[in-house]
Amino acid sequence: MKKTRRDILRLFSWIFALPVLSGLNTRGLAAAVNITRQEVAASVFFKTLGFHQLPAVDLITDSEFNDGLRFDESLADAPTGKTFRIQNCGRIEDLAEKGTLGVLPYFHIFAVNIEKPAFRGELLTQIMSYLISQAKLDPGRLLLVSTNRFQPYLQQLQPFGINASQFIERDYAEAIAAGDGSGFFNPPGQPHVNGAHSVSIHYASDASTMGKPQQYPLPGFLELGEIAIDAEPGEIIQSESAGLGVERILMAQGIAVDDFPASQQKALAAIKSESELRGVPLPKAYQRIADA
What single-letter DSSP state applies at residue 133? Predict the structure, then answer.
């Protein structure tokens, strides 16, 4: 029977609703659950720029940090070439922030890395292009937070309709001490991070929020992600990396995501599934999440 255009569109809609399983080994199998259409779109966008997809790494780690649960996409060795991966994570410290905008016990990071970028800030421009041209976010609702080390990059934002007034300069010493990614990324105890200068990207949950005086931290804003920046002019750029919160971008787009209880159940299911699949004990994080 001949298929109509509507039938074909329905078929593609169904395909995009399926989990993306190709290219994943058993270590990343649990991470493939509930891959969203947003992640598919991001994957296609970066593949057109020559990026290669890597499988997700284990959700359960062999570290006491974060009670044995994957904190983010950071690894001991940076990948080579131009790569991205979709990594499932959970942060125990976030459990105390239950009810805060964008905080979930289980989430996904779209992690991107360029080894030896063509120019300083190459990844920054690609991330901004993705957020504005592909994800269709309003550039007027974006704010960036970093230290004075980010000043040289501001001119690269102008083609995207982002001006200097949308940059909040944070005190250098304060950013270093916090290590939260808004100027400097260095989570205490994270075994694979030695500290990196960075800029965080935030999105106003309501357009009217942009008209108010802004000071970090930013209530009413979603932190979409962070980009590591090369902070020493004149030195050879070894690599650039970034991590974007998949669920945060969906929220910025006005698309519904799991609430805290639903995310909590998915976290427990993913941890238990991987524990059984790999034959490793449940991490301490499992009970912490269950009790949240």
Answer: I
Q: What is the percentage of the chain residues whose pLDDT exceeds 70?
A: 85
Decide if pLDDT at 286 tops 80: yes
CA distance 133 to 113: 20
Amino acid making up residue 223:
E
Question: What is the residue whose two structure tokens read 């000071």?
Answer: 215
Mean of the per-residue pLDDT values of the chain: 86
- Four-residue CA torsion sign, 156, 245, 146, 207: positive
Q: Are 226 and 200 in contact (CB under 8 A)?
A: yes
- Strands (E) in the chain, as ranges, are 52-53, 82-89, 107-115, 142-146, 167-169, 184-185, 196-204, 221-228, 239-245
Q: Decide: pTM greater than 0.90.
A: no
**CA gyration radius, the chain:** 19
Assigned token pair, 221: 């804003």
Please count the residues of the chain.
Answer: 292
- Alpha-carbon distance of 69 to 58, in angstroms, equals 9
d(CA 251, CA 245): 10
Q: In angstroms, how far is the first alpha carbon of the chain from the final one?
A: 53
